[in-house]
């Protein structure tokens, strides 16, 4: 007598597909959001590197939004989730159409989720160097609040510049 193989029913397999796809989409969005332009976060590649420091004075600070990235991961994950979810609709022919439509809608939604999830509230800081030159630097909002007239330091490491408040000089 042959032993029956225990396997999930087609309905049970179909029910788990959207859940596993949703997990993949959330993982992709989370990984995409790990990057930042915050002046309070130092990237590993910038640790223990000599930086160039310039004295400056803040002329103005204005809020801006750094647009999110579109690496394609969100669109791909969304397409997979949408395709799997759409394939569970109706019979054989309907499931093929549902899979295609679900993949297209999922890709669009996944792309939007990735782009929105990686957006950053930032500031554009306009500064004047001691030699009279002016520079504009965009960076994520940090813990320091900068105002016009504040003495600051421009710290440049590996081609990236951040603005931070200058420490008080004591004699």
TrEMBL record:
It comes from Piscinibacter sakaiensis (Ideonella sakaiensis). The keyword Lipoprotein applies. InterPro entries: Gly-zipper. Residues 73-115 form the Glycine zipper domain. Keywords: Lipoprotein. This is Outer membrane lipoprotein. One of its GO terms (cellular component) is outer membrane.
